[in-house]
Amino acid sequence: MTYQRHNGFSLTELMVTMSIIGILLCFGAPFIGETCQSQDVVNARKQLAYALKKSRYYARNQGVTVSVDLPEGSNSFSVTADGTELTGESNLFDSFNGTFPEDLVIISSSCNDINFDINGFLIDSYDELITENCIITVGYSNGIQKRLTINTGTGNVNYD
């Protein structure tokens, strides 16, 4: 008796495999949405940190005070130096637009105004050095949130 060799899979094997994949997807699908939202928040925090670092750099190298306006509950912010908006400036803020996705907002900021003086230190609107670290929270108002801190001693931006 000779047996014929069949190449490929039987219909039963394919159906069992597809069933297992379907069950795994049912359990994993909710986590995919959370992962995407979490990545959006991380990207927004990186974008804000980039703007703050570039603002500090610009203040130190141009010898001007740079202000970053972070309105709470808003999904955008602006950067100005001596009253001139820096957003879109070709050499420094070329890939920066200051806007987050629609549902992503600045939740809170412990500093009302973020200003970098000509030495790159944080100052308030009265040109006084700020003594406490500035903590900014970015995220979804009812979900995932991430913080970043501006160190008042050095002006460096750090992730929490």
What kind of oligomer do you see?
single chain
The whole-number mean of residue pLDDT values reads 80
Task: Based on the coordinates given, report the CATH architecture.
Answer: 3-Layer(bab) Sandwich
- Classify the beta-strand content into a percent band: 15-25%
Describe this structure in words.
It is a single chain. By secondary structure, the protein is of the alpha+beta class. 32% of the residues lie in helices and 23% in strands. The protein is built from one helix and nine strands; from the N terminus they run αβββββββββ. It has one helix at residues 11-62, and strands at 66-69, 78-81, 84-85, 104-109, 114-116, 122-123, 134-140, 145-150, 157-159. The protein has a five-stranded antiparallel beta sheet with strand order 3-2-1-5-6, with helices on one face. It has a four-stranded antiparallel beta sheet with strand order 4-7-8-9, with helices on one face.
Question: What would the keywords be for this entry?
Answer:
9 strands, 4-stranded antiparallel beta sheet, alpha+beta, 5-stranded antiparallel beta sheet, minor pseudopilin epsh fold, 1 helix, 160 residues
In short:
This protein has 160 residues and is an alpha+beta fold. The chain has one helix at residues 11-62; strands at residues 66-69, 78-81, 84-85, 104-109, 114-116, 122-123, 134-140, 145-150, 157-159.
